[in-house]
Amino acid sequence: MGDESEWIKLPIDQKCEHKVWKARLNGYEEAAKLFQKISDEKSPEWSKYLGLIKKFVTDSNAVAQLKGLEAALAYVENAHVAGKTAGEVVSGVVNKVFNQPKARAKELGTEICLMYIEIEKTEPVQEELLKGLDNKNPKIVVACIETIRKALGEFGSKIVQLKPIVKVLPKLFESREKAVRDEAKLLAVEVYKWIRDALRPPLQNINSVQLKELEEEWVKLPTTAPRQTRFLRSQQDLKSKFEQHQAAGDDEEDDEEGDAPVVDAYELLEPVEILLKLPKDFYDKIEAKKWQERKEALEALEVLVKNPKLESGDYSDVVRALKKVIGKDSNVLLVALGAKCLAGLAAGLRKKFQSYAAHVVPTLLEKFKEKKPQVVQALQEAIDAVFLTTTLQNLSEDVLAVMDNKNPSIKQQASLFLARSFRYCTPSTLPKSLLKPLCAALLKQINDSALEVRDAAFEALGTALKVVGERVMNPFLVDVDKLKLDKIKESSDKVELVHGKKSNASKEGKAGASGKVCSSSSSGDKVDSSSTKAVGQSKKPPAGKSVGASKKVKAVVPPSGPSGKGKKGTEIKEVEPELAIEVCEERAAAVLPASCLQQLDSSNWKERLASMEEFQKGVEVTEKKVLPCQALVRMLAKKPGWKETNFQVMQMKLYIVALIAQKGSFSRTSAEVVLDGLVDKIGDIKCGMKAKEALTAIAGACSLPWTAEQVVAMAFAQKNPKNQSEILNWLANAIKEFGFAGLNVKAFISHVKTALAATNPAVRTSAITLLGVMYLYMGAPLRMFFEDEKPALLSQIDAEFEKMQGQTPPAPIRRVVKYDADEEEATEEQDDEENGNVQDLLPRTDIGDKITSDLVSKLGDKNWKVRKEGLDELSTILNEAKLIQPNIGELPGVLKGRLNDSNKILVQQTLAILQQMATAMGPNIRQHVKILGIPIITVLGDSKNNVRAAALTTLNSWVEKTGMKEWLDGEDLSEELKKENPFLRQELLGWLAEKLPTLRSVPTDLMLCVPHLYSCLEDRNGDVRKKAQDALPTFMMHLGYEKMYKAAGKLKPASKDQVVTALEKAQAIVPAKPAAPTKTSSKSNAGAARPPSAASARVNSASANDEADAFKSDAKKGKSTGVASKLKSAPNKKVPSKPNIKDDDDKSGPIFIIVPNAKEQRVKDERALKVLKWNFTTPRDEYSEQLKTQMSSCVAKWLQDEMFHTDFHHHIKALTVLLEHLENEIEGTVACLDLILKWLTLRFFDTNTSVLMKVLEYLKLLFTVLNKEDYHLTENEASSFIPYLINKVGEPKDVIRKDVRSILNMMCNVYPASKMFNLIMEGLKSKNSKQRAECLEELGALIEAHDLNVCQPTPTKALKEIACQIGDRDTSVRNAALNTVVTVYNICGDQVFKLIGNLSEKEMSMLEERIKRSAKKSTTVSIKQLEEKTQRPQGINQNAAMPRKGCEEVPSKLNQARSSNAHSASESTHTIPKEFQLDLDEIENDNNAGGCELPDLVQHKLDELYEPVCIPEPKNRSVSPHYDEMHGTTDSTINFVVSQVASSDINTSIQALAQIDEVLRQESKVDTMSGHIDQFLIATFMQLRLIYNTHMADEKLNKTEILKLYSCIIGNMITLFQIEPLAKEASMGVLKDLMHGLILLMLDSRLEDLDEGPQVIRSVNLLMVKVLEKSDPTNILSSLIVLLQDSLLATTNNSPKFSELIMKCLWRMIRLLPSNVNVINVDRILLDVHNFMRVFPRERLKQMKSDLPMRTQKTLLHTLCKLLGPKIMDHLTLIENKNESELEAHLRRVTKHSMALSGGKTDSETEKGGSTIEDKESKAKISETLAEIFKKIGSKENTREGLAELYEYRKKYSDADIEPFLRKSSQFFQNYIERGLRLVENEREGKGRISSSSSSAGFSSPPDELPYVASSTSIPSTGSTNGEEVGPAVYLERLKILRQRCGLENNSKHEEDNPQPHFYPKPTVPTVVSSSELLHNKLTHLRDSRECNQEQESHPPMQTNSSTTSAANLDDLKKRLERIKSSRK
After folding, report:
1. Residue 1698 to residues 561, 1118, 1264, 1877: CA-CA distances in angstroms?
2. Side-chain half-sphere of 805: how many Cα atoms within 13 Å?
3. Where are the alpha helices (DSSP H) in 1365-1400?
4. What is the distance between the alpha carbons of residues 452 and 457, in angstroms, rounded to a whole number?
């Protein structure tokens, strides 16, 4: 009892694992009871036992095991999670239960296996049972066989897969154990019940005795098909039906047997590889001269092809050899042997032979000229076997080609072949489009002189009649006489169709069992056996259709029935015999009054008119059935008939003709009576319209094709040009109304050519108009008929065709009356006619003779140049032929090889040729789909974008000609999709997603693609997964949800869950199938025009619906480029095809499964206390188990195993996987975020540091990504994670504490800081002093960042608690608490003492002391911070532009000036967006910012000036001594250096950049860069792209090197863009790419993590400003517009920030427009805006989340309108079609509005300005003149001229107000103009002679930065000099002015040496040292600095100068000024 007391109180699950067997026994019993009691199958209780069930069945104690088995059975039956245990439990049953001696144990084991099958786990059960068959223990083998047999007997062959069972049967029959053999025999009998004779071939090689025993058993079996008696959980509806039938006593027959899958023996066979078994000398022997050797080769092949199933491979050489034997061998025995080999090959390969079929059939047909029976029989077998591998559609061209052969044997055998082929067809596989040409050819043969040909034709026609029925065949048999028609029907009655057995049985009653049909088929005959699969697969649907067809025939046969008005009846009416005039009068008298008939020919026109009115009434009141149409029209044609002279009578007559045609059964005979008269009157002015209406009515009754042919022939038989012209006009209109179907284009074209040659211009015009209408339906091929016309006429035709370009044919508004009864059939026939009609008309060239062996050998040559030569020749042949016949010889084979060419250029050329071939061959190209089309799909897997794009274009051009059916037939497409090539998969899936929605039906072979589609859903490549998801609904549209769900059942559990979720999502968005053609649309257009438009409509609608999702997913993808690129680069592992793979093969798919609303449900469960709340001090096992259970539904199984493994190494692996998949699976991460965070909290309790570091690494990346995604943690996620993270902040290791603190900082981005504050406050309660200290530090940081509002629940409570920590024993805690309170003090001052409450004296004194110390520190800290801030821009400049030593001090001082004048600056500055406040940064880089400008001195007269002022000579920067060695003046040297810029080696690139930098810095060598700017910029942004994609992602690379490279690149480009002429050379495309690269660089978040990263971003910002200002304004503006368009289309970058930055650049350019508008090519800009508005019309822009794009567009246009006024409308010249966008209308609106506004403003300004200007010149002209003058002043070359003009202007118009123009510019520019005007005034007034050198030195050009300063965005300088001491430059300026006024020359030595202003600005000229020193103390103002720049630009000072020299110069200058002043006194 003591032992029992140990386990009796344990929980059930622990008892089940107890080491004592009695405890386990007790546990199993209680578990069994528990399992029966739990009513909720989804109860969490089930999850406890998931890992125990295997132990239940494998218990070592036999007694306990029995109870365990009972409990396991109860668990499997009731638990919803039981399926997860299937594999392991069944494995345990097989190995540990089936070997038990107790029968009860075996029974329970078997029942468990069957129960797993019942809960949908067939595959793992069958897999384990089949494994058990290999066990050495015979007991286990017997039990496994018995279980399989029971499963098959109960569940049927639909559930249990027979193929693997049949495969192992022969091996079981060879067993030594009799028990195994006996059980195998029982299993074979059970299998035979389900598949009948299909089992015979696989067992043909077993022991003959065993086979005989089996045969005996099989004979005893009942003939009825077995039924499923046990059902899956998903088959409950079938179960209830079955039970009902059982209750009814099985009296009723059930159709369920029809649902039993028909198993083809072929499918059960293993394929045999024969290509490797061929004799080595096979190909030599088969071409040997001796026939015996050829026979040996064929006999060897014959033995191999007797294998019933052959392995797929490349049989093209074998087929080619056999074709040669059959076609050319003189020995008939060998011909017969070759035919047998071919038949065997076709039978063994089946569908895989399809690609060879079209090549051998013509040869076989031609060889039927042989008369020997054995040869003919062999050929028949061969062609029949070939037919079964393809379709009649593919072979019809070849058959029709020999139907006119002179040899009667060939014609006979071709007809017999058709007859045999028809037997395998159904109405759906024998459409009218195919039947029509075949029947036409056969009808010719029934009149053949040879009896055997006639009989064969009758048999073929009879078979066709049997297949499609009389209604479909009757239109083709109209002209057949009764005798022959009877013979056809007689032949039809004798025919037995392959598909017709079931339909024949249906006449007697219900359909017979399909099992009978299957069992009666014989496998002995090759043809029959090879067709079994085809018969089986399509058995049910054809049966249904044939039944329907038979019913329709019955309805049509009775002539009195309503269907009597079908096609046959109509045709009979159309050949109505002519009636005698007496009969006509008699019939007319029956419906018309006698007076009417008498007055018809009266001489009085009024009587004739009255007669016509009565005639009309008589027709209107007569019923349609009794209306004698022919009689009435003949009465109308009586004298005077159509010669009627009175137009009123004639109009009535024509109206009555139309009325009769519309109302009665109007035949062609009746039409012939009136057509001639109508054609005569159609040109009449008064009666022409009525004649046209009558013709239209007749066309509606007798069909337009017939009517048109008649009237056009009649019109051109006459010589009346008016009639000819009007007939053509009528026909053009009639085609639009009736559609193009059935028109005899050849006849029309001959008449049109006659009309085009007519002398009357109206006839020619009408003919061209008719051609335009025909072009709508026929397209480009129509032009080929008129290429021989005169050029002038051809140009008119082309112009008409151009008008029609892009238009779609109108939907027909009229229809032919005779089609009422059979509308749908008519639609199909019409469409078919339309499809083939145009193509049939075009003359085709046979190029077979030109495909010579020489050309073929060239195409296969080893030398690529020879191959290219061959391709060029072939292209020339196709170009010359234009349209070709399908005979292209051996071309398909060699072209297929070229598609796999190693030279990609040749691949592209081959694709172009194939595209050309598709156009040339037309629909006939379909016979080459298998051999040439499928390889095109293979090319979609190429790694090069351009090759894939070419392949896709070629593929679409082929599909346009062939339709999709040929591509979807067979296994080829699925084999392509199976290849694990991400490019191939994504392109192919994208193509299928586009094409499938346009199809109304698809072949069943599409189902073969589904498993591969599912594997694509789990592909490691994100693009493949996306394309697979897009394609899923289109597959479901055709296959249905049920089939696809069933296919998903074969997947592994983890994969299945994910796929099923995807299926459920796809089910909601399945597109509707295209509707069947309606009454109107069915006759609308030619087939060539209509289907594509329908398809495009479907695709467009689908893309419109998915657009938003696509943008979202793309945006998310854009953020994960780094990881995604790694994943893509990883080699794809090939997934094994075996079903028993585990672990590794599942790791390729996504790790998270998104279950909708799962997270919300988990929160609800936790609130409802259904699960444990995540709150613990240390985690218990139940928390871990609960988390594992919750993860099971949404985390990949293999990852879950890693996460919950006991070994920490597996945890690290799991974290690595999570890191890798994070950015790729953001949605999945967010969906499972609560579970991930909970799992991470468990890892916090691990003791392993490696795991903890990995966890923190993952968390940092996780919260970065969540922040980017703008995700915010839910309360549940935060409360279950943050407290545990705060616990880790007290870790003893500094590294960990630092990481945790950084994560806590990041948390504030995804969770409110106030709530974070609360949670951190909880951390103060910890006993860990380090944790408390860190928490206090974090609280201080939060308060500093977010102010006191962050303190929760109130600042008082929070601060009191913090203040309590001041008295803590631990020093670090005390310090942290004091620091936090000091932080609060810094915010609110003394109020802090009220908030913290009462403190002890000691604590208060500590606090006061700390506050005092912090006050002292704060001053020093602020200074340090200021220094840091001032040094930071300097650092940026070093990285960016690498300024010289002389300039280093300026920026820091300028920053001090900036900070000291911050308030005044902010007051005087205009409101400018923060992004563009870069002027001060620009000034910092201004290398001339070394001086200042002070007010001018008082003017004094100076008598003399004794000594000239000496200025030190400038020294240029030294150049590298190696420069001249390395760089020649030649372009090749520069090209070489520029190419090195893009080098992948960082050092090489830096050296190249340094060399280019030297060139750019030297004025003498700058010119050499001209012409290379685009090249340099391309190399630069290629290097930027390389850094972004490769170097930054390389963890091994030192990031300092990367930053150095960035600095060099940005510095070079800043230097370049300061040199305006070079900057303006940059082209639009290059600038677009450059801006794209720079913006990406600015947005690169990885830079922010580097120390110098922010400085790089700042430098890039500065560079972008330079690019915007210095580049050619047209190019940069154009590039920005195009880049914005691309970004909004998500083709360049998907970040919304990206587009925002582009728009900010555009805003800056818009602000520069006033100064640039005269140099901008406005036409080009408006063209770009037009293209933008065309892609993004106003409605689309409004739908965007942000309104910035619309505002940007409007602002740009408004600014241009404002600047250009109405003239802007003259700049739309480059836009071809202005109606494509709203640009023109928008400009008109804006112009009109701005004109109205400007009118008002002008008036008011004129009033203010006075009337003088108004009298002399208009206000607008003045503004224009002043703008021109200011533009000149702003340019360096014309500045003096501009100043002079401004002076003259002000002098002329004294009251002119130039203030508005000056106000737009900076203060410096205003001062510059004022000084310039004063100098001009001095010159003009003659106050002194100013030397030219002085003048030019002073005012040659404005400073470098002038355009920038003058822009509207510049910041005006502030402050004044305040009379402070000034520098030497000011004295120098004063001195010069004084000298000028005194008339003295400034011709000192330094002025002579002073260089003239340079063409290029000089960024390298250093600042004067003495000036810099003075500025260091005195510079306070930006304006002064700018004005000094102007002076210093003209006088470059010395680079180096000592302070003593500076002081001496200063003293010298002061002395001179004193002397000047004293002399004046």
Report:
1. 73, 11, 19, 46
2. 9
3. 1371-1388, 1391-1396
4. 9
Cα separation of 1247 and 1980, whole Å? 61
Backbone angles phi, psi at 1672, to 5 degrees: -60, 120
Q: Which residues does 1448 contact at the CB level (< 8 Å), separation at least 6?
A: 1434
Q: Cα(1469)–Cα(1463) distance, rounded to whole angstroms?
A: 10
Greatest alpha-carbon pair distance for the chain in Å reads 148
Count CB neighbours of 790 within 10 A. Answer: 10
> What one-character DSSP code corresponds to residue 807?
P
- Residue 1561 CA to residue 1557 CA, distance in Å, equals 6
Q: What letter would DSSP give residue 1292?
A: S
pLDDT per residue over 982-1027, tens digit each?
999 989 999 999 888 888 888 888 888 999 898 998 888 888 999 9
Residue 1863: which pLDDT band, with cuts at 50, 70 and 90?
Answer: low
Which of 1028, 997, 1026 minimizes the C-alpha distance to 1109? 1026
Q: What is the pLDDT of residues 1028-1049, one digit of tens each?
A: 999 999 888 888 888 888 888 8
Residue 845, SS3 per DSSP: strand
pLDDT at position 460: 92
Cα 893 versus chain centre, distance: 32
Residue 1499 has pLDDT above 60, yes or no: no
- How many angstroms separate the CA atoms of 1453 and 1436, rounded? 15
- The whole-angstrom separation of Cα 1009 and Cα 1613 is 53
Closest by CA to 456, choosing from 526, 403, 496, is 403
Distance between CA atoms of residues 1688 and 1698, nearest Å:
9
Interatomic CA distance for residues 150 and 163, integer angstroms: 17
Q: Which of 1490, 1564, 1491, 1554 is nearest to 1526 (CA)?
A: 1554
Checking if the pLDDT of 144 tops 90, the result is: yes
Q: What is the pLDDT of residue 669?
A: 85
20 CB burial (10 A radius; 0-12, 13-18, 19+) = middle
| Count of other CB atoms within 10 angstroms of residue 1745 | 7
Q: Where would I find the H helices in 1886-1999?
A: 1892-1899, 1906-1909, 1928-1941, 1949-1953, 1969-1978, 1982-1994
Query: CB neighbours (10 Å) of residue 1816?
Result: 12
DSSP 199: G
CA dist., res. 1444 & res. 1965, Å (int): 9
Q: What are phi and psi of 783, to 5 degrees?
A: -65, -25
Helices vs. strands in the chain: H and E counts, helices first: 107, 0
H or E element that contains 1895: helix 1892-1899
- Nearest C-alpha neighbor of 1247 from the set 1339, 1320, 1178, 1153: 1178
Confidence of residue 816 (pLDDT cuts 50, 70, 90): low
What percent of the chain has a predicted confidence (pLDDT) above 90?
A: 6
pLDDT, one tens digit per residue, over 1740-1777 is 877 787 788 888 878 888 888 888 888 888 888 888 88
Q: How far apart are CA 1670 and CA 914, in angstroms?
A: 49
Query: To the nearest whole number, what is the mean pLDDT of the chain?
Result: 75
**Tokens in use for 753?**
């050519």
Place of tokens 């800290």: 1421
CA 922 to CA 838: how far, in whole Å?
Answer: 10
Q: Can you read off the two tokens belonging to residue 519?
A: 């069992």
Task: Determine the average pLDDT of the residues in 1717-1735.
Answer: 86
Calculate Rg over the CA atoms of the chain.
Answer: 47
Three-state secondary-structure class, residue 1195: strand
Let me know the angle formed at the C-alpha of 943 by 939 and 949, rounded to the nearest 5 degrees: 55
Reported pTM = 0.39
Which residues are CB-neighbours of 1589 under 8 A, at least 6 positions away? 1121, 1125
pLDDT tens digits along 410-431: 999 999 999 999 888 888 888 8
